[in-house]
Design brief:
mainly alpha
Length: 246
């Protein structure tokens, strides 16, 4: 398995199979809050389509997952009452395109997600990690689509935004999660650099990623699930480094 292939597998393993669902809405409460019964019905239909896509993806049927998520994408595009669901739907579709090895479609989808999240991209924004998540996925998609130069630029932006998200005033666990994401982004940057023939830079970059992942994995003050995820990424980064030194 090549470096980029395992990075793809790692990214898909990290991606949530079920994006957070909107809260259950009771008709009387929702209508009184300004949410119409028509919107409730449309959201219920959308959630059924997304659930079908999730089931197909979990079963390994990427083609059917793509079909369902494309159906959901068309729903949110055609129904103004579903406009606020666009980010959630496109995130699922982008992951399905990656799983289905449709890198060009993944690039287009994550580019659209990044456009939706542009307000989160400035360092002073309250949620730079939202922007960074889209940039990381877009960078990976560009690598797989053969655009290593474009991937490098996008991943550098993600690297910076994860750093901005790890502000000193945030909780230790939150900062460690951002550090882990930044390290995983650096592993992708290393893959892009290698494809561009910049092996020495690629090696130094993944070595830095390994150092960061060790810091997260060894932190006893954060949840074990975060440490375990960092340990998985650390093993993958170490494998990447071994390949670079051959």
């Amino acid at each position: 398995m090549t470096g980029v292939e395992w990075l793809l597998m790692a990214a898909l393993a990290r991606a949530p199979q079920n994006a957070s669902q909107p809260p259950d809405r009771k008709d009387a409460v929702s209508v009184s809050a300004g949410i119409s019964k028509e919107q409730l019905a449309l959201e219920a239909q959308l959630n059924e389509v997304l659930a079908a896509g999730d089931r197909s993806r979990r079963s390994g049927d990427a083609g059917e997952a793509i079909r369902q998520f494309e159906k959901a994408r068309d729903m949110v595009r055609s129904q103004k009452l579903l406009a606020e669901q666009q980010d959630r739907v496109l995130t699922k579709l982008g992951g399905a395109y990656l799983a289905g090895q449709r890198a060009a479609d993944a690039v287009a989808t994550y580019s659209a997600i990044l456009t939706l999240r542009r307000r989160d991209c400035p360092p002073e924004s309250g949620s730079p990690s939202n922007c960074a998540d889209a940039e990381q996925s877009l960078g990976l998609s560009k690598i797989l689509a053969g655009d290593s130069d474009g991937a490098l630029d996008t991943l550098r932006d993600a690297e910076s935004n994860y750093g901005s998200a790890a502000k000193p005033d945030r909780t230790e666990e939150y900062r460690m999660i951002q550090l882990k994401s930044q390290a995983e982004t650096r592993s992708l940057i290393s893959a892009a650099l290698l494809r561009l023939g910049r092996r020495e830079e690629a090696t130094k970059t993944v070595e830095l990623a390994i150092q960061q992942l060790r810091e997260v994995e060894s932190n006893v003050n954060i949840q074990q699930s975060v440490r375990d995820s960092a340990a998985d990424s650390l093993r993958q980064a170490q494998q990447q480094l071994e390949q670079l030194k051959r």
